[in-house]
Amino acid sequence: MQTEVTRLLGIQYPIIQGGMAWVAEYHLAAGVSNAGGLGLIGAASAPAEWVREQIREARKLTDMPFGVNIMLMSPYADQVAKVVAEEGVKVVTTGAGNPEKYMEMWKAAGVKVIPVVASVALARRMERCGADAVVAEGCEAGGHIGENTTMVLVPQIVDAVNIPVIAAGGIADGRGIAAAFMLGASGVQMGTHFVVTDESQVHENYKDRIIKAKDIDSRVTGRTTGHPVRALRNEMTRKYLELENQGASFEELEQLTLGGLRRAVVDGDVKNGSVMAGQIAGMVKERMSCKDLIGKLVRETDELIGGKGFYE
Hints:
The protein is of the alpha/beta class. It contains 14 helices and eleven strands. An eight-stranded parallel beta sheet has the order 1-9-8-6-5-4-3-2. A three-stranded antiparallel beta sheet has the order 7-11-10, covered by helices on one side. β3, α4 and β4 form a beta-alpha-beta unit. It is globular. The mean pLDDT is 94.
């Protein structure tokens, strides 16, 4: 499954694990990279030294390429950006902002830069400022989302830029990967399915909630605030949507979700925490290692489009 993305990143398969806050730490990143994909450490809003420690711990577990996802709204973004360059990380994906001011430093350090985008305009801007590829993420994804679906977003971005496009949002199996290639993508990014892998350190309650999810269990909160977030329905999403419908203030809504993701991931509170997951949660039915999951994804994709010219 060699594509532009595998050549760019020096990986075996064009499968990237999403940089999920509180979920994507070094055990998971190393597990995915050892299995032939690209693992990511999610920096989220963590301090720079935590990220440095995660990078060094990942290196003890894998000698394969892995990356760091940086949320550019983080108060520590400037320091984390420097740590990535200092530690010789191979790949950075970015979200929630424009990485342009770090490009010169990262390029000098040989870092491949892959912003996550939800629009054609942002994809074009990222290409102009030197991005090596972009992740086109549809609203089917878990966590913070845009408006367009993966099906309509990916081909428009593919047509708009000359750098590789990685599809994300709503991809759970080989059928989704094959569809992404047919839309013009050169790789995929997946999050939710990796949450339930053996290497994932999230609380068992979180994994169980994803495994038991049905097709109708996905909810989007925060549309009125301009910060929509997709999670699995529970007491927290019910309260949030009630308050949102009543016209509650941004501050009141923020208070309800403050620390919610940590409560779910670390403490296992899947009733009042934020169980972020994509719409594909209903398709995730079993736990397995990262190696077994990626092997399964590759076999399924090959059965559908192997030898048909969608990858080399």
